Amino acid sequence: MRDVVGMRVHAIQTGTVAIRPNQLRGRGPGPARLLNTVIDSGWTEPLPIYAWVIEHPEGLIAVDTGETARVKEKGYFPAWHPYFRRNVREWVEPEDEIGPRMRAVGLSPDDVRTVIMTHLHTDHAGGLAHFQRARILVDRRAYQVATGPFGQLLGFLPRRWPDWFRPTLLDLRPRPLGPFPSSLDVTAEGDVTIVPTPGHTDGHRSVVVRDNDTTYFLAGDASYAEQTMMEQQVDGLSLSARIALLTLRRIGRFVAEQPTVYLPTHDPRSGIRLRNRIATAMAVQEVPMTQH
User: Fold this and answer.
1) Residue 149 forms beta bridges with which residues?
2) Are 177 and 183 in contact (CB under 8 A)?
3) Residue 19, phi then psi, degrees to nearest 5
4) pTM of the entire structure?
């Protein structure tokens, strides 16, 4: 936790996940990158599954909802899906879900005014059940993809969402924020803003939180770590490396232009950077598009 001007940002860890190393750092062009991820036999160390809660003068704001302990239930993941069958391991207990974890730091999910979803993969949407009272913002395109005919094939689990889930679909406005061509303010003060970061998924969004001298970039899965962002390393699941790399370039330019604490969901050092307000320490070197 760290005080911002009128705000406090909390890192809420909702269990851990292990993935294949080739998902963390994609290998190969086009479809070969996805195939190399699926057939990889190694595992990363357990990585955190973070959600974020912003104490703001206008009310509590959550960014993503973390994972659910239901992942331990037989049949929660579709058995036919090769990714869920062999490419992910998650460790989440009931007390690890975002509701109990928020209460442990003196907050209540019932008091959350707005939930912003970076995207709808289960490790980000698994905790939706804790926020029935909140307005839940989801990018329109992201929702269409997740609920469309290929949604499950792409790794989304809409049948696991709460029956009451009817999100407010958002459309960004053509108002640039730094290198990002569009944005949408969530607060009247304009200090919590959604920006486009497609690549990991279609319609992926990130959230920028600004105080007087520091900016927090809640990145979702725009990259899996600060280091892979700095290396401009596209992950192993992105269907379009070109789009994902363009996003990483924009993020790199953004953090080079202003002190920015970069906070991806699965980076083991995100919590440390948040607590100590550690900004990205060096300019990001752009990788030629031809390398992807």
Assistant:
1) none
2) yes
3) -130, 175
4) 0.94
**Alpha-carbon distance 203 to 46, whole Å?**
27
Q: Which two tokens stand for residue 187?
A: 């607060």
- How many CA atoms within 13 Å lie on the side-chain side of 29? 5
> Which of 261, 262, 259 shows the shortest CA–CA distance to 228?
262
Architecture (CATH level 2) of domain 2-291: 4-Layer Sandwich (3.60)
Q: Measure CA of the first residue to CA of the last residue in the chain; give whole Å.
A: 37
∠ at Cα 202 (199, 204), nearest 5°? 70
Amino acid symbol at 58: E
Compute the distance between CA of residue 161 and CA of residue 250 in angstroms, rounded to an integer: 32
DSSP category for residue 155: T
Domain residue ranges in the chain: 2-291
Q: How far apart are CA 147 and CA 156, in angstroms?
A: 8
Predicted confidence (pLDDT) per residue in 175-190, tens digit = 999 999 999 999 999 9
Torsions phi, psi of 277, nearest 5?
50, 50
Lookup: tokens for 261:
């604490």
The size of the chain, in residues, is 292
How far, in Å, CA of 50 to CA of 163, rounded?
Answer: 24
The three-class DSSP label of residue 255 is: helix
Q: What is the pLDDT of residues 131-164, one digit of tens each?
A: 999 999 999 999 999 999 999 999 999 999 999 9
